[in-house]
Amino acid sequence: MKTKKRILSLILCIIFIMILVFSSAFILTHEHHNCTGADCPVCAQIQAVVNILNSIKAVIVLLFSFGGLFVFTCKKVLNEHDKNDSCESPFKLKVKLSI
Length: 99
Hints:
Elements: H1 2-29, H2 41-84, H3 90-93
Helix pairs in contact: 1-2
């Protein structure tokens, strides 16, 4: 099960990288094309590719923002928990209780 998840993750990463590379290559190779005017299919395709890249960029920014917020919140909660857990007990003070 674990190897299936790794393989699926690897395939998704490869597809994601291929989308980025081929989209950027399409924009670079068709930037100076012979435009036919207002209904140019190449210009429409370039605009669609730019929209895809912008949406991917927005998703990545949101993921990193929420990830950073999650990490910051976890650290804050754990620090508060550590401060509250500092009560002194005979066990923590390593006191030998003998009669």
